[in-house]
User: What shape does this take?
Amino acid sequence: SETRCELCDINWESLNGEEQTCLEAISAALDQSPNIHTNQTLSKSTQAYPRVLKIKAQWLELRSELVELRLSHTADQASYQQLLTQILTTTTDNCMQRPPVVDRMLNSLHFSRHERIQVS
Assistant: This one.
């Protein structure tokens, strides 16, 4: 909701707490599939805030452009698969660092090589 306000040249900090709460609820409702009950509740709660109604109208005007922007910034399947492959090869190429066998055995039985923990 803050980002949407910035896109409409509205300072988020200039809004009071109730207006911010209303706009966050409206933003969440716009991101989800339409729900009649939620929309009716939001409509009733926003009637007291004319600035919120104007901001919501601006958001609805920008909705198609925001969808295009979101789609242009999401990665396609090929680049996503390439990223996952690079992560997998990087992690498999690096050896896991393990302590010597003696240290592992000693630490699994008792912690004599470690200092005692001081409990206050």
